[in-house]
Amino acid sequence: MDVYTILKDFSAPFITAVAIFATFKQVGKQIQNIKDERKQTFKKQHQIKAFELISEKAQIALSVCEEVSSTVNVKKVYLENKSDLTVLNVEERLVIVKACTDTVMGLCKVLEANEIINPLLFRATRYALQSEHYKMVKAQFGSSEMEFLDTMFWTTNQCLFYTHDFLVCMQNEVYGELFNNTLSARFVNDPKFRVITNNPTQLYELLTHLERDTDWGREVLKVRT
Q1: φ, ψ for residue 112, nearest 5 deg
Q2: Which of 116, 129, 101, 99 minimizes the C-alpha distance to 50?
């Protein structure tokens, strides 16, 4: 029996085997595509669910911070005009700080619980809010009325800015592809004012700044060491 005959005898089974292999490979690829699609769908659904939860907490924090910022700003005007009206007593300071603590730290807890979604963005936002909250807590004792009002005005506004920044980043991440659109980051003229963006390099820089250059960061470092 010559080689041609042998090859001829085995050609049909070989072709059949190749066809079966190709079919299995194609089916396997289709199954993997379905798995990948389901994974992406699950991921997107979880992102949306988490964003809705975080957004709810964020809106509460925004509302409280806006109210506190407006209140202390009015009281600053009274104090600057040397009005006879009593500006703040100790109890009022505690009430104001507690309102911010409950809402801002409540938002921080939700961010920490969902950090797996985007660790850098969630952590940077949480650290930024905690740094501002630390200033609020320190200011309620041992500071003059004007110092307290100034601190509360600037820290509540910073919390507003950081929360808005985060919501912009999350909307872009969760809904950007769906609606084929993106929101622009907040623009600041003075570089000393930080903006949270979903840029890894900028987020690392912000985290480093918060951990090394803020009173909150230095205090956390003391506790850790």
Answers
A1: -65, -40
A2: 116
Burial of 65: CB neighbours in 10 Å, binned 0-12, 13-18, 19+: buried
Residue showing tokens 């963005």: 121
Percentages (nearest 5) of helix, strand, coil residues in the chain: 80, 0, 20
DSSP class per residue in 114-170: TGGGSHHHHHHHHHHHHHHHHHHHHHTSS--HHHHHHHHHHHHHHHHHHHHHHHHHH
Give the type of residue at 40: Q
Q: Is the pTM of this model over 0.85?
A: no
CA distance 123 to 163: 13
CB atoms near residue 214 (< 10 Å): 18
Rounded Cα distance between 87 and 79, Å, is 7
CA gap 101, 61 in Å, rounded: 9
Closest CA to 214 of 188, 191, 186, 194: 194
Report d(CA 114, CA 154) in Å as an integer.
Answer: 28
* 141, 218 contact by CB (below 8 A): no
CA distance 55 to 96: 23
Instruction: Dump pLDDT digits (tens) for 6-43.
Output: 545 555 565 665 556 566 666 656 665 665 566 666 67
- Burial class of residue 32 in the structure, from the number of CB atoms within 10 Å of its CB (0-12 exposed, 13-18 middle, 19+ buried): exposed
CA dist 123 and 82 (Å) reads 42
